[in-house]
Amino acid sequence: MACILSSNVWVSGDDYTIALFYRYVLIAEPAELVEQLKEKCQRFGLLGRILVSREGVNGTLAGGVAAVNSFVAELSADPRFANIDWKFTNDRGDSLPFLGLSIRVVDEIIASGRAGSFINSNISFNDATYGGITGTGTHLTPTEFHNALARNDGIILDIRNEFEFDIGHFKGSKNLKTFNYAETFDALDQVLGPVPQEGKLEDESKGTTDSMEDSGESVPPQNIYMYCTGGIRCEKASAYLCAKGYSNVYQLEGGIHRYLETFPDGGLFQGKNFVFDSRVSVGPTAAPVRADGE
Length: 294
Known about the structure:
Number of strands: 18
Protein name: Rhodanese domain-containing protein
Domain Rhodanese: 150-268
Distance between the termini: 33 Å
Organism: Spumella elongata
Radius of gyration: 20 Å
Number of domains: 2
Strand order of the largest sheet: 4-1-3-2-5
Helix content: 25-40%
Shape: globular
Order of helices and strands: EHEEHEEHEEEHEHEEHEEEHEHEEE
CATH superfamily of the largest domain: Rhodanese-like domain
Region (Disordered): 196-218
CATH architecture of the largest domain: 3-Layer(aba) Sandwich
Structural class: alpha/beta
């Protein structure tokens, strides 16, 4: 049956909306969902990309303001996607920031490589959580994350790729120097080293650990703060650390996108945010969006 176009389809020169979204949720029939999403996107004239797997969805779409709103309303009517935290950016131009539409089935909505099976054995679906899974680090709102970084009481990890870090990052954050997400987990091991034991203090000059029990003092585990663009990369990265035994693991809820909405002057974020569309990067005065790549 032919697809009937909505009257909300975007026209060159009009305002358009970019929607960023992800959700971990059990998808029994990924191929069936792909066809449903294709029909909706084609009907509303949306461009972009969506990855679908048995573990959920991850995508970025662009189209007319009303068309995107209609798509969101239709998808949100499905109980599986009712709790998606949609992130929007409005813009205007002669063309949408995507050249076409790609919706496909993948093994994971963001490929975690060799760490995937270990992570998946330590997480479970939970619709009551922000991203849809349990076993992750503690989610911090942008304001909570900002205040935590201002306290300077832990290590800050950028869970994006190196070229994204080079364009912009939070003040004092650590560059994991990765090329893709699958490299993240080896990089975390290298940066953090063995899981520390509470009550032990690392003496870097001697390469030994001395007990603090004699003094009656206890050394708490180091706080680990992490962030990415929209939140999806931190979900499994924080779950990986929690499964290995790290405590005090925190992630920025909603990613840089939500942070810059809360702190439009940039706050503690320095530079620009890389986005995977024709805009390339977005400064603090505009809320950035992207679909976290594989």
